[in-house]
Protein 1
Amino acid sequence: MANTTTPNPSTTPPDPPTTITGTTSEISPIETELLEEYTRLLNNLNTLSSQLNDMASLPSAEMMDGLRALERKTSLVFTLLKASVYSIVLQQQIWAGEDGDDAGGDALGGDRDGEEE
């Protein structure tokens, strides 16, 4: 029967350090090329990360101008929405006043002749 026990980590010698350019006999040329690609990818991602951090810390003037324009448009849309809601509420009050004309008042609380009681 084969020995199935795992070796004790303290007695196992550490693996020899491998560098990407100086390959050992355990790493094939394809694995070395793949590791070099991963290294380039890591460097590119680190560069991208630092550039994104710079952009986030100091917003550009173009971004600020875009945000100002967006703020103006949002304000305009909000104003138009308020006006639309006010118009709908006013129209409903007018309709409710027409339904209750028998009471002698209009939708705004005054009488039909404009005289106050």
Note: The two ends are 112 Å apart (CA to CA).
Protein 2
Amino acid sequence: MRLLHTTSFQFKEFFDSQVPKYAILSHRWDDAEVSFQEFEQALRKQSAALDKVLQCCRLARFRGLDWAWVDTCCIDKTSSAELSEAINSIYRWYENSEVCYAYLSDVLWKPTADPDVSSSRMSFGNSVWFKRGWTLQELLAPSDLVFFDHQWEFIGTKSTMSALISAATRINISFLSSSNASQRATVATKMSWASTRETTRVEDMAYCLIGIFDVNMPLLYGEGRKAFYRLQLEIINNSDDESIFAWMADPGRITGMLAPWPSSFISSADIVPSYASTKSDERQPYRMTNRGLEFHLPRVVHYLSQQNLTDADYQILMPTCMIEFNLNCATGRGMFISIRLIKIVGIWYRIERDDSSPTYSTPGYIDNKGKARLKIIYIRNSGDLRLPS
């Protein structure tokens, strides 16, 4: 970890237990940021990009901290190895900081000049900082997060501003109290926090979530949206939280089990664990294979007839059977969540999520003797079909 001395403005690398206490900056990147290579020369002339770094150092010194970390100049981005290490470590770096200073360059905070504080509150809640992908982890990870406006006037802390932050981000206040608190959220809930955020590069929409899900993965710029599929596979390899499958597809869309993008989770903010819905002690592990996502599912299926689908549907899709099974999660209203799969020309696809009543009545995962009756199926994640209208 390369840190910047807050007085001498010299860089020094630290490893593991050697890392001293430090402050960290959170901000939105502009077009002309100061890079690691340009920093020494940039010190000779004033600029808005340099001012962010200097202000962070000034605040750190006031707090008695000798070191600071700023992403623009503390990472040598010409080194792909260093960039990959930084992105895989950055959540932990924010989490371990003594204090994080969040600079909201588009906010004007003048509560003393605004009797009802409405315009200042609106300015804060509308900040683009709350809409960027990378700043999500910078909001969740630090234990001490302090906000400043575009003139570096103090706004408040994550604790004092929690109600406004929750309104702007759709993150429940209970998950804002600490990094540990946010880690207790289900996969689907965390994905919902990112569902309306954006990044400049497509791949970064997956890479900015690495730390939030406590996984690691190599960076492959140029892979496009495949990065988000890889992220989900890493999550599956490290968690049995089936809410990762509780996303919503467009009506009539036939897909694989993995979501195409975080926006698919926009309606999943209230999902909680509910192992009673699946008898998880009898649930078999699932994994990705070269035949698709392998699931052990009920042998009881719905066999489709011409009464289930129109003749036109039959001619186009030739479906043979459908199956429905519960996930180990539920909505905040106590509704179990199940997934419906359809088999078309020997291949299984996901067709929709269904929020059923608390009384489980979907096809029998457990037989009348209390034993699981399972068969192995493989759900392809390639291809994207649409049911005929």
Note: The CA atoms of residues 131 and 197 lie 5 Å apart.
Protein 3
Amino acid sequence: MPASTIDSVAHARFDEKKAYVQDEQGQAFFDDGREIDLLHFVYRHPSIDEIRGSPTNVLKAIDEYGRTKKYLMNVGDDKGRVVTDLIAEVKPQVMVELGGYIGYSALLFGDAVRKAGGKRYFSLERNPEFAAVIMSLVDLAGLTDIVKVVVGSSAESIKRLYAEGLHHIDLIFLDHWKPAYVTDLKLCEHLRLVSPGTVLAADNVIKPGNPPYLGYVRSSVDQKRQGNSEQLTKVDTSKFGKNADMYKGREGEEHISTEIKGNPNLIYESKLVNSFEPTGEPDGVEITRCVGTAD
């Protein structure tokens, strides 16, 4: 769909009282020990008895850490509400998130999927240490019946889930390495995991931004068939600055394949929902619906 037809839905003013501390500009703001420190904070919390078995209270403890200790790159309450409202509408049987970090979205959205009658929430996370944090908090929250953590690169994990019998995804939340948004979506198209009825929710399309992804999901079938969106979807990690490099860490540089062409015949309808980062900075979630297949 052309960008000019995209609706922009503004949310209410940000509540400064719930703001996270700012991320450390120019410094590491994750994978510096804070994720394990968060676990100790949660498990030593004075209200640990009330936290056990309650996704809501685990999330409150995580938010408390983010507001009083160190910044955490979570989806946060405001953007999280955009996606939980979507889950209540779509009622996905199977939801997949690309990029789990410490499990905030897995807790929030996994709980929402269960309440909506869904069967499985897959949280794909490349970093095995972060994945262990997710699993610990999912167990604490009592969500092990719905949330399954998959460790490995997003592309390899998608292929593995497909090989193990996953054939359709109802709702996908993209919140991982920004240059991989388009290539992972094309992989899901190629495997027919994305098909009419699938809904996509992509985080951080304003901060730091993701023009290649927006260019792809907003392109018409004719544009994709004719290759007019080739330049928009070409992976150039330099366009993402530090946000493309900050994931290297101990796992090394991410490798993505541009060989898979996806399915240009899928028809998407896409709109931007304006919201806020947990720090209060403006951001948005792109909601994209696969509504059909062109002849």
Note: The first helix runs from residue 34 to 43.
Protein 4
Amino acid sequence: MATGRSVLEYTFYLLVAVSIYIAIGAPGLPEGLLQLHSSNPETSTPLSQTLLDSLVHPNSSLHCPPHPYTIHLFSPSSPLIIYIENFLSASERAHLLALSAAHWQPATIVSPHDGSTEIHDPAVRNSSKALLTRDPTVQCIERRALALQGWPCHTFLERLWAQRYGPGGHYSHHFDWGAASKSARRVSSFMVYVDANCTGGGTNFPRLEQPRGGKWERFLEGEEEGVEGTTFRAVAGNAVFWMNFDAEGRGYRETIHAGMPVRSGTKVGLNVWSWYQAGYEPEVQGEREL
């Protein structure tokens, strides 16, 4: 795991050095360098056409049935980290599995050699991914993710991707962001467990201290030799949410994380990434209220 971590951290510093203002440190975020600008030139950061095309906002006129979930505050700040029980219902999980079934493809990472090309490297990331069609169920999940964050201004979602891990599947330690600024960044992440018929496969944060006892025993893996920090157990329907940056656009180093190896069975996750773009105002019909 140390090798995967060093490669990805090297990629991060390379991207910062050349000031490419798009977050390309995670699979599923398309590259592209055709520059557009937001509507506020004083606070704007160049926005690639392909990233622009990937930003979505759920249809506010869509009726989404009430969906109760339970929040457990893991870290109140610096960074904010929340564990969410029942973020997805059983029917939503079944729908996402059916929706992704015909679309799996090898998951990719950004090449450390040029900082832009997407490559398949199972030594770093051994999984499959599937882009989800934005049908009403998916848009209701999008709305739930934005509502949990309070519908922050100038914040949108990137298209949702499902991730599938079989035996031996893993993703070495990485950040969900590559380069960012105060006015443009992948501001937050959800790791949602769609299916967890597996052993192993938790989400490890090596720089987070693991709490002892109490309710967290239900949600965390026990201590394991050679594994540092906190590992959230993969539980179908539950999710982990965290903020990637502070208000000034400084990334939280504590958010480096890994998808731990699946020892048996299959894990399917859902990436929900929120992107902040200062001054950018796409046309959105209706209101943003549930």
Note: Residues 85 and 153 are 26 Å apart (CA to CA).
